[in-house]
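Catalogue entry: protein

Sequence with per-residue tokens
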Amino acid sequence: MGVSTSFFEVHTWTMHLREELKISKALEPGHEVALALLLTREYVARLQDEYVFGPTKLSDQQYNLLRILKGGPKDGYLIKDLRCRMIYRFADVPRLVNRLALQKLVTRTPCPHDKRGSMVKITDKGIALEAKVHEKLDALIARVDRCLNAAEREQLLMLLERLRDDYRELLA
């Protein structure tokens, strides 16, 4: 299933956050930033679900796990080592691995060095599906990225990193 090109046409209109969420009162600056981040994250997630992950029946977390395994060591990763590499840090990694194993996208074997641990490796079928999804994701990301020039992109990344640094302190 291809990505609809009509959906990705550039729109020249913009909608203010308060208008879009039908908020009549002025927002505190921090609230406006938080709402803008959450709404933007929701847009990206919906686009990914509809155009990238939905047709494959994978979740974004399952894809994230396949991507990590594909780029990892040949012997795979211990389940406990996958969590810190996940975008969503509270993912139930053993459950994700079990679901992927049922689809024969990964294998799970006891770790020879840690009897309580399991090694997870991506299969050839998992590699093929990751590549298929990666192609669709690249097309979507190119669309998401095209509304920013290089300087804006760098500034946005710097500001988001600053926010994550501040949030890490709160979570530590």
Summary: Strands lie at 77-78, 106-110, 118-122. The CA atoms of residues 49 and 58 lie 9 Å apart. Residues 1-14 have pLDDT under 50 and may be disordered.
